């Protein structure tokens, strides 16, 4: 359902979905803390620019570091179509090698969405995010939730896969799993804390959306969005979400 939202002082029309609404609410609150400022944003594994381009449209300077040249080409096209090519920089590179790509302690807001579950080793990537941040800068980190994966596999009849996800220390179902790891809220928070970040908020993203029959999700999108918003910060619902969003800060 198209909604007009305010994002850092710029009116924008976008489609708010259970996949994005909670994250945008957290990011908007951070942007609103610094009205009128042009922030330096780094989106690690930012892909085709689903977050980077709207942030540039809101007036911020965004660098996307991504391993995929195809994703970066799509990002560049999207930024040009949106008229913000001058505020979006695309860099091909690895998340754990940011130090050579981005000046340390220069970034106000770093995004790392749906990346830590696919990289070889998440700890150096998180350490690199922290190094890029200015003291007082914020990190928006989105990871796959383990509990939701167990429940959905079991409900679909794949009890062996569900059991493997429970038993595996990293929450992966093995070599054929598309993700190398999944998190619960405590483990994700501990990963960020170990790198020196202070976790301020944890939200569940898609608590219900993936569990509902399509007829319900498609038939009542506004009600679903409201319910997702109501549940996102509340354990135990939060902890059953398909994804966990952590908002953290490098101490000033
Ligand atoms: C699932 S997509 C997520 C894209 C975007 N962040 C989003 O939430 O829509 C994962 C992205 O991470 C990138 N990626 C994977 N491993 C990476 C690495 N080691 N360093 C940088 N980017 C990586 C992929 O190319 C891909 O664009």
UniProtKB/TrEMBL annotation:
All residue ranges annotated as the Methyltransferase domain in the record: 41-137
The species this protein was found in: Micromonospora viridifaciens
Keywords: Methyltransferase, S-adenosyl-L-methionine, Transferase
A single BP term in Gene Ontology: methylation
Pfam family name, one: Methyltransf_25
Coiled-coil region(s): none
Protein name: Methyltransferase domain-containing protein
GO molecular function, one term: methyltransferase activity
InterPro entries attached to this UniProt entry: Methyltransf_25, SAM-dependent_MTases_sf
Membrane-crossing segments per the record: none
């Amino acid at each position: 359902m198209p909604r007009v939202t305010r994002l850092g002082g710029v009116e924008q029309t976008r489609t708010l979905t259970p996949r994005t609404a909670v994250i945008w609410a957290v990011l908007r609150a951070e942007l609103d803390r610094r009205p009128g400022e042009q922030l330096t944003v780094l989106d690690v594994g930012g892909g085709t620019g689903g977050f980077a381009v709207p942030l540039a449209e809101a007036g911020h300077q965004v660098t996307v570091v991504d391993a995929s040249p195809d994703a970066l080409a799509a990002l560049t096209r999207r930024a040009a179509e949106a008229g913000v090519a001058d505020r979006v920089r695309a860099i091909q590179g690895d998340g754990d090698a940011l130090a050579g790509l981005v000046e340390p302690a220069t970034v106000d807001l770093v995004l790392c969405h749906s990346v830590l579950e696919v990289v070889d080793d998440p700890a150096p990537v998180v350490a690199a995010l922290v190094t890029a941040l200015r003291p007082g800068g914020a990190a928006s980190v989105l990871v796959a939730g383990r509990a939701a994966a167990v429940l959905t596999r079991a409900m679909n009849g794949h009890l062996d896969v569900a059991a493997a996800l429970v038993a595996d220390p990293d929450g992966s179902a093995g070599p054929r799993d598309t993700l190398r790891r999944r998190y619960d809220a405590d483990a994700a928070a501990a990963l960020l804390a170990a790198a020196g970040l202070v976790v301020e908020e944890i939200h569940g993203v898609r608590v219900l959306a993936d569990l509902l029959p399509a007829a319900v999700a498609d038939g009542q999108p506004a009600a679903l969005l409201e319910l997702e918003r109501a549940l996102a910060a509340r354990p135990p619902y939060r902890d059953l979400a398909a994804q966990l969003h952590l908002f953290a800060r490098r101490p000033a």
